[in-house]
Design goal:
Chain A: Keywords: Membrane, Transmembrane, Transmembrane helix. Chain A: It comes from Nocardioides antri. Chain A: Its main location: membrane. The complex is a heterodimer of chains A (205) and B (322). Chain A has helices at 2-31, 34-39, 44-72, 83-107, 115-128, 143-147, 150-163, 168-199. With 205 residues, chain A is mostly helical. Chain A has one domain (2-199). In chain A, helix 1 runs parallel beside helix 4 (83-107). Chain B has 2 domains: 2-235, Rossmann fold; 237-320, Alpha-Beta Plaits (2-Layer Sandwich), CATH 3.30.70.260. In chain B, strand 7 (167-171), helix 6 (179-194) and strand 8 form a beta-alpha-beta unit. The model of chain B has no long low-confidence stretch (mean pLDDT 89). The chains are: A mainly alpha (205), B alpha/beta (322). Chain A binds chain B through residues 31-33, 35-42, 47, 194, 197-200, 202-203, and chain B through 13-14, 58, 61-65, 83, 86-87, 89, 91, 95, 97-101, 112, 114-117, 159.
Chain lengths: 205, 322
């Protein structure tokens, strides 16, 4: 039950970030504000990262709410051996999810239908990140895909810290992979905006 | 000094349709547009829907890459010096979209101030000045979703001016605004020129262009077909005078009969409630009134008026030429 309880807590954060981040710029496009955002002398990173960090903050609320619901409604009391490490791991999950969300969000500049990417990632993400079953039980060919998502390592760090183990290796990998997504998103942001200007996909018409 | 310079700008859109059998289609929206706008000038770009006005503006404000040709804004290339161009320009378009509906006008302006790099210390004063300029003081804390179209349009203008841009692109800013709001908007635009801004304006309203613009370019099917001052454009047309005849219940045969009158170049019918106004474009020095009235025998006729060609007459002729 401890396994499911911890997975459910982080799952809300994943859903919150993945689905909304990938549709962020699509909403701007529908509102007619995307062109104004792009036409501003500010980089896409400065627009998107604060928003995905805000989404992660809402995700932190889902972690707390899920833990409280598990305790009060379902009678599941999680055993947390090290609260400082547990909180650090959850915060690392939030930060790296914001970086991953930045990557998802930036693709929507170029492709009008990229919002569907986030929606289609939601349920596979539950399995790939090890929220509901251990990653080791997935087919071998899926392991590299799981390892390429920072949240997989964040989830491992959360479990390790709750069980009294050392989460530092998982935290390091989580932060490294998350940062790699942020750097990739910054680079792709410029390329994709140029591509959108070339292919005229910033506006609906 | 030149503020905006466009040289042989071209833009082709490629679209693909179909799922299994993909067919590509190319549309040449802008076909070699060139013009210069001097600093402090109000330049009008007129043309029918789909003529390429918005596409031209979007290339100048760096939202679209030109397929060919070049453009510079205040000396900065719109393809290579994107950041420098964006710092110096403002963009306002007409219609309901382009604002955050759930935010107040104040929060919209605060957000765009951040995006356009207005220093935090200056934001409050700047937003206050602009709200005053566009007449939204006192309503700034209301959500935009409750604003009328005119209020939204004025908020758009305030947004476009937040970072005090040197060049302003106004794409049909008065579309859908009531006459009083449109008059206020024209006064606001005219005041921008008084403080030294350069403005590129597109509009469908000829009186607006006539009243505001120093120079006008008429664009048709992606090409500029005429350029000059409003007075110059009026002289370009072949129409010598325009005769307007108010009628009640005029039929198609009578309109055809008028077209055959010597000296009449074209006849247009404008419905005004129960009345039809026949607009006869006549050759220079042609005296057609008596002959035209004779052809309307049996039709109830109201006021008959002869006037000089307006900018609208010039525009209609320019965009109608084959």
């Amino acid at each position: 039950m401890q396994f499911a309880g911890l997975g459910a807590a982080v799952m809300g954060m994943w859903t919150c970030q993945g689905v909304i981040a990938s549709s962020l710029l699509t909403r701007e496009r529908w509102a007619g504000t995307l062109e104004l955002v792009v036409a501003a002398p500010t980089s896409m990173g400065r627009v998107l990262v604060p928003t995905t960090l805000a989404l992660s903050t809402i995700g932190l609320y889902t972690v707390i709410a899920t833990i409280l619901w598990e305790r009060w409604v379902f009678g599941l009391e999680l055993r947390i051996e090290s609260w400082p490490l547990f909180v650090t791991s959850v915060l690392a999950a939030a930060l790296t999810l914001a970086q991953f969300g930045f990557f998802l969000a930036v693709t929507a500049v170029r492709y009008r239908s990229s919002w569907s990417l986030g929606a289609s990632l939601e349920y596979p993400g539950w399995l790939l990140c090890g929220f509901v079953i251990p990653v080791a039980t997935l087919p071998d060919w899926l392991h590299p895909l799981s390892w390429s998502i920072p949240t997989t390592w964040a989830m491992e760090a959360v479990r390790e810290s709750a069980d009294g183990g050392s989460p530092w290796r998982d935290l390091l990998l989580c932060l490294l992979i998350g940062s790699a997504y942020a750097v990739l998103a910054s680079f792709l942001g410029r390329q994709l905006v140029d591509s959108a200007r070339r292919h005229a996909t910033l506006a609906l018409t | 000094m030149t503020a905006v310079e466009a040289r042989d700008l071209r833009r082709t859109f490629r679209t693909r349709t179909g799922v299994l059998r993909r067919t590509a289609k190319e549309v040449e929206a802008v076909r070699g547009v060139s013009f210069d706008i001097q600093r402090g000038e109000l330049f009008g770009l007129l043309g029918p829907n789909g003529a390429g006005k918005t596409t031209t503006i979007k290339m100048l404000i760096t939202l679209l890459l030109p397929t060919a040709g070049s453009a510079r804004v205040l000396g900065h290339d719109v393809v290579d010096d994107v950041r420098e161009v964006r710092r110096r320009i403002g963009y306002v378009f007409g219609g309901d979209r382009g604002l955050y509906e759930r935010l107040s006008a104040l929060d919209n302006l605060r957000y765009f101030s951040e995006l356009y790099g207005v220093p935090p210390r200056e934001q409050k004063a700047r937003i206050g000045e602009l709200l005053e300029l566009v007449g939204l003081t006192g309503r700034e804390r209301e959500r935009v979703e409750g604003y009328s179209r005119g209020m939204r349009q004025r908020l758009h203008i305030a947004r476009g001016l937040l970072h005090d841009p040197e060049v302003l692109f106004l794409d049909e800013p008065s579309i859908g605004i009531d006459p009083v709001g449109a008059r206020e908007l024209r006064a606001t635009i005219a005041s921008l020129i008084d403080v030294g801004k350069t403005v590129l304006l597109t509009t469908h309203y000829m009186f607006e262009a006539d009243e505001l613009c120093d120079r006008i370019a008429v664009i048709r099917a992606g090409e500029i077909v005429a350029e000059g001052t409003p007075q110059h454009l009026k002289r370009l047309v072949s129409v010598g005078s325009v005769v307007e005849i108010e009628t009640y219940g005029v039929g198609e045969p009578a309109v055809e009969a008028l077209s055959a009158v010597a000296g009449v170049q074209s006849v247009a019918v404008e419905e005004r409630g129960q009345m039809q106004v026949l607009i006869l474009h006549c050759e220079t020095d042609a005296q057609v009134t008596q002959a035209a009235l004779a052809r309307l025998d049996g039709v109830r006729v109201g006021r008959v008026d002869t006037r000089e060609p307006t900018l609208e007459d010039a525009y209609v002729e320019l965009v109608s030429r084959a």
